[in-house]
Design brief:
This protein is an alpha/beta fold and 278 residues long. 48% of the residues lie in helices and 20% in strands. Helix 4 runs parallel beside helix 6 and helix 6 runs parallel beside helix 7. The radius of gyration is 20 Å and the shape is globular. Bound molecules: ligand C2E and calcium ion (3 copies). Ligand C2E binds next to strand 2, helix 3, helix 4 and strand 6.
């Protein structure tokens, strides 16, 4: 088999090797990133139909001393594959509930916080139990928390995942289905899932006003989602015309650079003070 392996390696392009090497450097650096306190959380506002703040999505950032800023699209999957994601996920949960909890007290305001949970986190032993315990420890109102999952979760045994989601929901935590429309799952899945929000993927919003197909898709997603009783969230809204189109179609919540980019907690505080002072 040694010979066989050698042959198959011959098919690897130098580009592929470079990528693999870089991935292993990222993995190596990821292992110590938590201790070195290289992670932090940024928050992107979600706006309702009236233009008021509804909530924020917590998004992780990694400022590596060795590699510089590494975007989550570049390292989350590596963290998943190397088993590091549960720990990083706990950091995001704790940090965001702590920071947002403090801000809400200080500003005497209430809003939702959405947290991304990846597929591997769900596989952790007693994931839901630990999640609910951690939420309780922070004292954050569970009914103001949204857990964002993606369709990739449902490659796994559906019944088991549904059970876990229902367990999370007993405490009032909401569930959002993220990046909707990009996975391979069928529409019939929607009626089986105990979800509260449907987030239309940015790729559909990007081409909303330029491609008839996207317009048809978004229109159908909103109608179907609303009929199933979900709140519909549009993400990646960058243009006013996209926003007005979506408002007209009955979309509930909006997230995108048109309103605000993800920001650190101190900037979010200023953003909130500014928007509530009028
Ligand atoms: P996502 O969950 O779909 O998050 C939305 C992404 O779209 C964010 O990228 C956000 O900055 C970006 N975005 C929002 N509005 C706009 C817009 O108007 N224009 C453009 N160009 N981009 C916009 P980000 O922060 O780079 O995160 C990328 C992905 O990494 C996330 O996609 C999510 O899948 C993953 N991720 C980020 N933070 C976490 C985390 O704490 N845990 C887990 N498991 N995954 C995370
Ligand atoms: Ca998300
Ligand atoms: Ca998304
Ligand atoms: Ca995405």
């Amino acid at each position: 088999t040694a010979k066989k392996r050698k042959n198959s390696f011959a098919f690897f392009s130098t580009e592929f090797k470079a990528l693999r090497d870089r991935n292993s450097i990222i993995e190596q650096e990821l292992r110590s990133a938590l201790e070195k306190e290289e992670f932090y959380v940024v928050y992107q506002p979600q706006i309702d139909r009236n233009g008021d703040l509804h909530g924020v999505e917590a998004l992780i950032r990694w400022e590596s001393k060795k590699l510089g800023n590494v975007p989550p699209d570049r390292f989350v999957q590596i963290a998943e594959e190397s088993g590091l994601m549960p720990k990083i996920g706990h950091f995001v949960l704790k940090k965001s509930l702590e920071e947002i909890g403090n801000l809400q007290k200080q500003c005497d305001i209430n809003f939702f916080v959405s947290i991304n949970v990846s597929i591997r986190q769900f596989h952790e032993n007693d994931f839901t139990g630990k999640l609910l315990e951690e939420i309780q420890e922070t004292g954050f109102d569970p009914s103001r928390i949204v857990i964002e999952i993606t369709e990739s979760l449902f490659i796994e045994e559906l019944e088991q995942i549904v059970r876990l989601l229902q367990e999370i929901k007993t405490k009032g935590v909401r569930i959002a289905l993220d990046d909707f429309g990009t996975g391979y799952s069928s529409l019939s899945l929607l009626k089986k899932l105990p979800i509260d929000e449907l987030k239309i993927d940015k790729s559909f919003i990007d081409t909303l006003l330029t491609e008839k197909e996207s317009e048809a898709m978004v229109n159908a997603i909103i109608t179907l989602g609303k009929n199933l009783g979900f709140d519909i969230v549009a993400e990646g809204v960058e243009e006013r015309r996209q926003y007005t189109w979506l408002v007209e179609k009955g979309c509930d919540l909006y997230q995108g650079y048109l309103f605000a980019k993800p920001m650190r907690i101190d900037k979010l505080m200023k953003f909130i003070e500014k928007s509530t002072s009028t």
